[in-house]
Amino acid sequence: MTTKTAQKQNAKETIVMSVNAATVNNWIENDQAVLVDVRETSEFDKEHIPGALLLPLSAFDPELFPSIPGKKVVLHCAVGKRSETAGKMLINEGYRDIIHMEGGLEEWKKAGFETEIPYHPPQQQKAPEPVFLCPRVGEVLSEEYLSPLGLDQNTLADSIGVSYEVVDGIINGKTSVTAELSLRLARYFSTAADFWLQLQSDHDLERARHNVGGEIRKKVKPRVAN
């Protein structure tokens, strides 16, 4: 492959699909899409689209971007530049069917769609709660497996050969899933062997990134080849 051919191929691969505000609003009303705001926290605090998740571009990490099965993920910013940049970052990381809203929040408002302007009482302003997209293993286990199947914790504990305390610890977030526990749960629920371990890893990475990610980026510099 020639250099020019490779450049053309790369350019094609980094094209981010764009849709207008009316299309995005229709998807949201029909519960077909999740809107991700890549503006900064200060901008989000002043005004945002109801239900949008906040993932600022300044701290945007494609490796930790969540997969939301069954729904379109639409990126947006103020006028559409930053959302397109975030989209290209995701495509370069291997994601496909990335969408961004052209014109961003400005076009959304021009189209007459609703926004939220939070009221912050003087002297009581608080930083917005972080949006965590990787759930605890216990939440997935309880809400997507035990409840739908009508299983209780004792039954699960007996079925996978562990104590009640172990299962209760997973459900309540006090016990982390080990490789052995992942194998036991995978065997019982017929999932991939690493499914439960990956849930634990994604959850832990997201929390660590929130707690110490900024400090690590400041103190640890990437190794540069001599």
The overall number of domains is: 2
Low-confidence segments? 1-12
- By DSSP, the count of extended strands is 5
Tell me about the biggest sheet? 5 strands, parallel
Query: What is the CATH topology descriptor of the largest domain?
Result: Oxidized Rhodanese, domain 1
User: Mind telling me which CATH architecture of the largest domain this is?
Assistant: 3-Layer(aba) Sandwich
Order of helices and strands: HEHEHEEHEHHHHHH
How much strand? 5-15%
Protein described:
- The protein has 226 residues and is of the alpha/beta class.
- It has 2 domains: 10-110, Rhodanese-like domain (Oxidized Rhodanese, domain 1), CATH 3.40.250; 137-216, 434 Repressor (Amino-terminal Domain) (Orthogonal Bundle), CATH 1.10.260.
- Helix content is 49%, strand content 8%.
- The chain has helices spanning 3-13, 21-29, 41-46, 81-92, 104-110, 137-149, 153-160, 164-171, 179-189, 195-219, and strands spanning 17-19, 33-37, 53-54, 72-76, 99-101.
- A 5-stranded parallel β-sheet has the order 1-5-4-2-3.
- Helix 7 (153-160) packs across helix 8.
- The longest helix is centred in the last third of the chain and has 25 residues, at 195-219.
- Residues 1-12 have low confidence and may be disordered.
In short:
By secondary structure, the protein is an alpha/beta fold. The chain contains 10 helices and 5 strands; from the N terminus they run H-E-H-E-H-E-E-H-E-H-H-H-H-H-H.
